[in-house]
Amino acid sequence: MADKSSRGLADVVAATTSVSDIDGENGRLFYCGYDIHDIAGRISFEECVYLLQRGDLPQQQDLDDFEDELNRSRQIGPTTEALLPHVVRNASPMEALRTLVSSLSADDPDAADSSVEADRRKATRLVAQLPILVARYEAERNGRPAVEPDPDLGIAGNFLWQITGQYPSDRVQELFDTCLVLHADHTMNASTFTARVIAATLSDMHSAITGAMGALRGPLHGGANEAVMNTLASIEGDVDAVDEFVRAELSAGRKLMGFGHRVYKTEDPRATHLRKMSEELSELAGDRRYYEFSRRMEQVVFDTKGLYPNVDFYAASVYHALGIPTDLFTPVFAISRMSGWTAHVIEQHEDNRLIRPASEYTGPRDRRWTDIAER
Ligand SMILES: CC(=O)SCCNC(=O)CCNC(=O)[C@H](O)C(C)(C)COP(=O)(O)OP(=O)(O)OC[C@H]1O[C@@H](n2cnc3c(N)ncnc32)[C@H](O)[C@@H]1OP(=O)(O)O
Ligand SMILES: O=C([O-])CC(=O)C(=O)O
């Protein structure tokens, strides 16, 4: 007989992993044993991807080789190229990207192979291809040719260059790079769990990642960063209007996106970094409005509900200050989380068992069939 169900699988250990770990009571996050406070701002996103997918930080030569491999892996195949204009016309960014990511398998030489070596090659390609797909989406919907990636820039710098058309300063590149590091992995969050469930049927990497994209999109998960920005932008007036807005939302029983977390009982350690980055980038952009609104909102939500901001909260004002369009915020999350998802799929395939939990039946029992004419 199975244990009683845990609503939303809270506190259920659904997998073993050596990719990341969280101490929710003390607000700590670790990637492969490294404290996020120790590595954020010190390792590049490329190093972080290497760490998550291979378990150790790279030596300089490993990193150089890995960066070369990423640069060579950006190309989008003909199937996805052909599909791109159609989905851009008819679908919002996360819908379009979910479909485009799925289509990448059609031209992937390792599509049908789920060996560790093939999974690693596909993981590298997916990490390199997704930022290009987002940039291509943005160019296509604005009816302009895509900006070519600059070989001197890393993933973070290139993305900003391709999206905004402006060459980012070293400091702006560093800050966005740190954002990508901060979002890279987070144990058994909903999208990673989805990816692992799919991988555990011995399905392929692209199927698992397509499912993860679908799970990330929801506003209770990665979609919250876009919702936060829409909330901030909807508040009219000066910073004092935030108090009234928050109280009205909470007393109407509505959730404020960007607050609360299933695991953290204290501040999300990623929010600590993003808050500082939001202030610095707002200064650089010469517009502190959304940073100050965010600070006030954080204070009022804490005073009224005792809730802390999660990773999505300050990400909103950070991405806005970087000039990223609001509906690309969740795609940016996906660009980063691709590193964690792919690492988990590799880990699942390396030591697989089908994931098939039990359920607790709550419907009626012992019913008797009656003919349709008599129901
Ligand atoms: C990358 C990420 O995915 S981070 C999370 C991004 N999502 C969001 O920011 C959406 C807003 N937050 C939430 O909906 C939740 O806090 C979640 C989904 C993150 C966590 O959910 P759960 O652990 O299931 O908590 P649950 O939704 O049951 O909330 C517990 C209580 O706190 C309240 N609560 C939780 N979050 C919020 C919020 N953001 N605003 C207002 N109230 C909240 C709930 O209403 C509930 O109150 P009740 O017990 O009086 O009914
Ligand atoms: O862990 C979670 O449930 C959500 C989260 O913060 C993330 O995926 O980064």
TrEMBL record:
Pfam family membership, one:
Citrate_synt
Transmembrane stretches in the record are none
Q: What is the lineage of its organism?
A: Bacteria, Bacillati, Actinomycetota, Actinomycetes, Jiangellales
Family assignment from sequence similarity = Belongs to the citrate synthase family.
Biological or metabolic pathway of the protein: Carbohydrate metabolism; tricarboxylic acid cycle
For this UniProt record, the keywords arranged alphabetically read as follows:
Transferase, Tricarboxylic acid cycle
- Translocase as a keyword of this entry, yes or no, is no
Q: Which residues form the signal peptide?
A: none
- GO biological process terms held by the UniProt record: carbohydrate metabolic process; tricarboxylic acid cycle
Cellular component GO terms, alphabetically? Answer: cytosol
Catalytic residue list = 261, 312
Could you give a GO molecular-function term held by this entry?
citrate synthase activity
The protein in question is named Citrate synthase
InterPro entries according to UniProt: 2-MeCitrate/Citrate_synth_II, Citrate_synth-like_lrg_a-sub, Citrate_synth-like_sm_a-sub, Citrate_synthase, Citrate_synthase_AS, Citrate_synthase_bac-typ, Citrate_synthase_sf
Under catalytic activity, the entry for this protein gives: oxaloacetate + acetyl-CoA + H2O = citrate + CoA + H(+)
